[in-house]
Amino acid sequence: MTVAEHDQIPEAALGWIDAGKRAVLATVVETWGSAPRPAGSQLAISSEAELVGSVSGGCVEGAVVAEALDAVEDGECRVLEFGVSDDEAFAVGLACGGRIRVMVEPIGIGRGPDVALIRQLVAERAARHAVGYVVCTESWDRLLIDQAAGTPIGAAVRRAMVLDRSGFEEVEGAPWFIGVHNPPLRLIVVGAVHIAQPLVKMARLAGYDVSLVDPREAFASDARFPGETILNDWPDAALDRLGLDARTAVVTLTHDPKLDDPAILRALDSDVFYLGSLGSTRTHAKRVTRLTEAGVPEGRITRIHAPVGLDIGARAPAEIAVSILAEMTERLRRPATRPSGEAARPFVSALVLAAGLSGRMGDVDKLTEPVEHAPLIRRSAAAAEMSRADEVLVIVGPEDDPRTGPRLAALMGGARVVHNPENDEGMASSIRAGLTAIDPRADAVLVMPADMPLLGADHIDAVIGAFDPEAEKSICRAVDEQGRPGHPVLFGRRYFDALSEIEGDQGARAVIEAHRDQLAEVTTLGQGAILDLDTPEDWSAFNSRRGG
Question: Model-level pTM?
Answer without folding.
Answer: 0.55
